[in-house]
């Protein structure tokens, strides 16, 4: 709700709200003005002597713009509401159309002419009278009267007279009301406001009241009284005219327009009631109205033009006065000298600043000649300034701007920059000169000081130029020396001794020093040794001097920290004064320039330049030259090391070339695409080629042509990309004749400094013989392993192969089975030995297969007895069940064997469970055997059992009773054990 209220309150401030308010205001004023006009008695029913709506509409369109034209239609509608009358559409349409077009045309035309609604300019008033009052009103009366004719309200004979009356009414409405509204809503400055306020405001208000009373009183007397014919011939209607003029001159535009409105209103009211001079003079009412309208037109136009003219002139006078005051203040308060000379050269004006500057008062200086007062006769340089001043008076145009020396009253000399303007009359005769001066004394002093400074600077520049020329010659000499050193063969060929001699001689000759030497650190950097010393006076070289760091610590520290030690006075310089007693004084050295020799970023030595005689200042150029000489030493030493390295490289290359050529393994380089770059003779022989050319011509794609299995090459490449190398990589390859051999490769990648792959490099070894030997060895190994597994369990065999000297293990839970073939001894006496062995082999082989089936370990056979165990060498929880299944299967196997051989075979089986010790005994013909009471008891169960039966101990019975069926044999006497309860295993229980 608050939001809606705020929107409602802000609506009048919006663009649409303001527009609607403007339309409403104009329409109401329009209706009220029309209502007043038609309410006057005694006027024509079709037009009033003054038609206010015309003036109101035009003022509204000028103030708010042509867009408010709907207010005219709305005003007519409001008028009809308060004053109902017969409405004819043609008349209504014509009246509204004429009024709208009249107002829009006037507003548009006046805006096009630059009209200002304030009516502050005379041309605005004239344009309003012409276009607003005389021309635009032709539109409304023409259209309106024509609509009356179409509606049949008038006949054609009255068209012009009615149109004339209509036009006069609209014109008077525009001339009286439009200026009043415009000036009232857009007030402009008045004559009074332009004057300097010196009178009492209350007194001014009193005069306004007096003027208003007189105006109303005179107007009422003139226009309300009924005059007879003898008096009416006098122009009494112009009696209020002086008061209108008084208003225009004294109170401004608004008062003048208001006065014409008041007079017009009283004249209309008086005339409508039969009073006033117009009724007395006229023969009829229309003629009286015509006189009235003419009077109002004269009064309104005259007062408006007069008030505007007076206001415009007053405004101009005010602006001129303000300008005069402003420029006078500017001249008087300016920070410049302003004076005026007459044609004879005498001073006629002297501003306040000039008084202060020169020290003269106005009354003291006016009328005097500047020469001798503010201009000296001669300046400090002896120039005659009086002649110059006379030349200025004769030819002022030549001296529009100039500078000269002036003089104060105190006698002080000052410099002034003058800007002169000749003052001439209409005939071109010189009347005087306006001079404006600016104090430039400080600038002039600065210029003089600058001039002296420039002179000194020119001397210094000349000295510096000579020094630069000398320096340039020295630099050219140093440059030539360095070029000669760079071309010297000794520096480039590694002859260090000769190179150092050239460097020291160049240093002494170029810098004109007495001694030049090169010193290098020893390996421990505890001292420096002189490799070469050149003495220019003797023209000889020497070496062998030594300086210990412990004796001269400050000097050695400076060598590590400074680019160059430039000692002007070597005896006083803190870096070199350690040498005074031992070195400087004995040799007469006064100045030193020592430059460290850098190799690989480390100080390796020093280049010493020593001057004898007066102390010498080392220039920057000389220090730079010394640094360049130290670099030459570095270059010479690096050249020697490079020569040594090249020699070592040549020897190494010859050595490795010999290795490459004579190696028994193949050596190669290949591209990433699989092409050989180089191969050695060994590789040629391995692959069965006669020459390097033949191999490289035939093997152009290693991937497809060399490897029996091409994917091996891809695997090699992947490994090298991942690890950078591959070692002992075995592959099968084709030789030149198509035969296949085994090779072992060792290869690695070779890359540039940026890590980009260049090629692969490696070695190849023929391992065909080794692979064949390995295959034969594996075959023999497999035979030995099978033989060993026939003797020993696999786990025991593996331990034995690991060279364990003693193999013995304890097992807490195993089940042992002994089986014996009943009556085999009688059978053996009836058959041959070979048949006997074959028979036993067939039976025991069946048992072996059963043992393997049930995961049991066969221990041994003794004659016709068979021993097997469950739960070792790999422990298992179901060892008793596995032995029981083995025993039942053995009975079935013997039964099957008896049927197939037509003989009655049977076996006795004994089983016992418990702990045992198992191990390998002997050093030849190994056997894996068991020991312990469990084994002996199992053997007793077999020997005390019945043929075709499986006898178990109490221990085994307890492990199997839930899954197998038993027969309790009861207690029996067992040899070595005493009485034991045993059971006979019958079968598996049916679940």
List the helices and strands and how they pair.
Elements lengths: L1 H9 L4 H24 L13 H13 L5 H13 L6 H24 L9 H14 L1 H15 L7 H27 L5 H4 L6 H24 L4 H4 L8 H11 L1 H20 L4 H5 L3 H49 L3 E6 L4 E4 L1 H7 L3 H4 L19 H10 L6 E7 L5 E12 L5 E10 L1 H47 L1 H5 L2 H16 L3 E7 L5 E9 L4 E3 L3 E3 L4 H9 L3 E3 L12 H8 L1 E11 L2 E11 L7 H43 L3 E5 L5 E4 L1 H6 L5 H7 L3 H4 L5 H13 L1 E10 L5 E12 L5 E10 L1 H24 L2 H8 L6 E15 L1 H5 L4 H21 L3 E6 L2 E6 L8 H23 L4 E16 L5 E5 L1 H11 L6 E4 H7 L3 E11 L3 E11 L3
Parallel strand pairs: 21-23
Antiparallel strand pairs: 1-2, 1-5, 3-4, 4-5, 6-7, 6-12, 7-8, 7-9, 10-11, 11-12, 13-14, 13-17, 15-16, 16-17, 18-20, 18-21, 19-20, 21-22, 23-25, 24-25
Helix pairs in contact: 2-3, 2-4, 3-5, 3-8, 5-6, 5-7, 6-8, 6-15, 7-8, 8-13, 8-15, 10-12, 10-13, 12-13, 12-15, 13-15, 19-21, 19-24, 21-24, 32-33
**What gyration radius follows from the Cα positions, in whole Å?**
71 Å
Secondary structure: number of strands: 25
Estimated structural class:
alpha+beta
Report on the biggest sheet: 8 strands, mixed
Can you give the helix content as a percent range?
A: 40-55%
Number of helices in the DSSP assignment: 35
- Give the end-to-end Cα distance, rounded to a whole number of Å: 93 Å
Q: Mean pLDDT, nearest integer? A: 79
Overall form: flat
| Percent range for β-strand residues | 15-25%
Extract low-pLDDT stretches: 41-47, 189-198
């Amino acid at each position: 709700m608050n939001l809606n209220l705020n929107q409602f309150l802000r609506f009048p401030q919006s663009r649409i709200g303001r527009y609607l308010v403007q339309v409403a205001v104009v329409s109401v004023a329009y209706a009220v003005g029309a209502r007043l006009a038609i309410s006057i008695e005694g006027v024509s029913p079709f037009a009033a002597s003054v038609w206010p709506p015309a003036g109101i509409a035009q003022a509204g369109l000028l103030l708010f713009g042509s867009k408010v034209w709907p207010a005219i239609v709305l005003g007519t509608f409001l008028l009809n509401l308060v004053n109902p009358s017969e409405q004819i559409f043609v008349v209504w349409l014509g009246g509204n159309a004429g009024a709208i077009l009249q107002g829009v045309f006037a507003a548009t035309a006046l805006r096009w002419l630059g009209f200002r609604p304030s009516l502050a300019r005379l041309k605005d008033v004239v344009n309003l009278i012409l276009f607003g009052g005389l021309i635009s009103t032709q539109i409304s009366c023409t259209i309106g009267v024509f609509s009356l004719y179409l509606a049949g309200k008038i006949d054609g004979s009255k068209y012009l007279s009615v149109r004339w009356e209509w036009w006069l009414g609209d014109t008077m409405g525009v001339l009286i009301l439009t200026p009043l509204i415009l000036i009232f809503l857009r007030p402009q400055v008045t004559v009074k406001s332009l004057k300097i306020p010196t009178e009492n405001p209350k007194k001014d208000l009193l005069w306004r009241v007096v003027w208003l009373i007189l105006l109303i009183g005179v107007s009422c007397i003139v226009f309300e009284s009924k005059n007879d014919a003898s008096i009416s011939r006098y122009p009494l209607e112009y009696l209020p005219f002086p008061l209108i003029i008084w208003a225009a001159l004294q109170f401004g535009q608004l008062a003048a327009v208001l006065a014409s409105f008041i007079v017009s209103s009283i004249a209309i009211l008086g005339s409508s009631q039969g009073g006033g001079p117009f009724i007395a003079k006229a023969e009829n009412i229309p003629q009286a109205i015509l006189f009235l309208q003419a009077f109002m037109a004269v009064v309104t136009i005259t007062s408006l033009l007069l008030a505007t003219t007076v206001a415009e002139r007053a405004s101009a006078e005010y602006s001129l006065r303000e300008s005069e005051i402003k420029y006078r203040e500017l001249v008087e308060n300016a920070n410049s000298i302003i004076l005026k000379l007459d044609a004879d050269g005498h001073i006629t004006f002297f501003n306040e600043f000039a008084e202060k500057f020169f020290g003269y008062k106005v009354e003291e200086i006016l009328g005097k000649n500047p020469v001798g007062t503010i201009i000296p006769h001669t300046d400090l340089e002896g120039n005659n300034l009086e002649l110059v001043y006379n030349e200025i008076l004769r030819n002022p145009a030549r001296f529009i701007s100039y500078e000269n020396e002036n003089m104060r009253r105190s006698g002080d000399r000052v410099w002034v920059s003058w800007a002169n303007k000749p003052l001439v009359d209409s005939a071109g005769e010189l009347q005087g000169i306006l001079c404006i001066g600016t104090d430039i004394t400080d600038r002039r002093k600065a210029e003089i000081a600058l001039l002296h400074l420039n002179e000194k600077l020119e001397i210094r520049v000349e000295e510096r130029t000579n020094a630069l020329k000398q320096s340039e010659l020295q630099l050219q000499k140093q440059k030539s020396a360095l070029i000669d050193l760079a071309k010297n063969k000794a520096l480039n060929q590694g002859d260090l001794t000769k190179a150092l001699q050239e460097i020291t001689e160049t240093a002494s000759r170029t810098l004109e020093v007495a001694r030049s030497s090169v010193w290098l650190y020893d390996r421990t950097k505890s001292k420096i040794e002189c490799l070469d010393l050149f003495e220019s006076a003797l023209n000889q070289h020497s070496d062998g001097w030594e300086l210990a760091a412990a004796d001269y610590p400050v000097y050695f520290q400076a060598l590590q920290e400074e680019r160059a030690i430039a000692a002007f006075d070597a005896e006083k310089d803190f870096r070199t004064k350690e040498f005074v007693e031992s070195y400087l004084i004995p040799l007469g050295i006064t100045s030193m320039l020592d430059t460290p020799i850098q190799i690989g970023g480390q100080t390796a030595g020093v280049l010493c330049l020593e001057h004898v005689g007066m102390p010498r200042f080392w220039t920057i150029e000389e220090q730079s030259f010394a640094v360049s000489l130290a670099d030459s030493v570095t270059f010479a030493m690096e050249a020697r090391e490079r020569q040594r390295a090249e020699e070592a490289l040549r020897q190494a290359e010859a050595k490795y070339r010999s290795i490459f050529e004579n190696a028994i393994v193949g050596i190669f380089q290949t591209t990433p695409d699989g092409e050989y770059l180089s191969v050695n003779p060994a590789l040629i022989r391995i692959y069965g080629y006669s020459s390097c050319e033949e191999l490289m011509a035939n093997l152009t794609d290693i991937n497809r042509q060399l490897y029996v299995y091409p994917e091996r090459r891809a695997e090699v490449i992947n490994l090298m990309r991942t690890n950078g190398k591959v070692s002992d990589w075995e592959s099968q390859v084709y030789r030149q004749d198509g035969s296949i051999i085994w090779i072992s490769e060792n290869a690695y990648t070779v890359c540039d400094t940026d890590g980009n792959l260049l090629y692969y490099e490696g070695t190849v070894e023929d391992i065909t013989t080794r692979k064949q030997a390995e295959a034969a060895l594996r075959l023999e190994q497999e035979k030995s392993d099978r033989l060993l597994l026939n003797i020993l369990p696999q786990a025991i065999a593996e331990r034995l192969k690991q060279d364990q000297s003693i193999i013995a293990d304890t097992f807490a839970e195993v089940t042992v089975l002994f089986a014996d073939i009943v009556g085999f001894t009688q059978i053996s006496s009836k058959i041959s030995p070979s048949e006997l062995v074959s028979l036993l082999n067939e039976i025991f082989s069946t048992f072996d297969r059963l043992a393997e089936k049930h995961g049991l370990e066969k221990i041994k056979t003794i004659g016709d007895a068979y021993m097997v165990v469950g739960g070792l060498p790999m422990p298992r929880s179901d060892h008793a069940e596995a032995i029981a299944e083995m025993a039942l299967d053995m009975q079935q196997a013997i039964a099957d064997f008896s049927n197939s051989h037509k003989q009655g075979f049977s076996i006795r089986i004994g089983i016992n469970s418990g702990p045992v010790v198992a191990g390998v005994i002997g050093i030849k013909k190994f056997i894996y055997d068991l020991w312990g009471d469990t084994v002996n008891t199992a053997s007793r169960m077999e020997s005390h059992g019945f043929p075709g039966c499986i006898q178990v101990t109490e221990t085994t019975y307890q492990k199997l009773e839930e899954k197998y069926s038993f027969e309790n044999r009861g207690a029996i006497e067992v040899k070595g054990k005493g009485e034991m309860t045993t059971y006979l295993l019958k079968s598996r229980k049916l679940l």
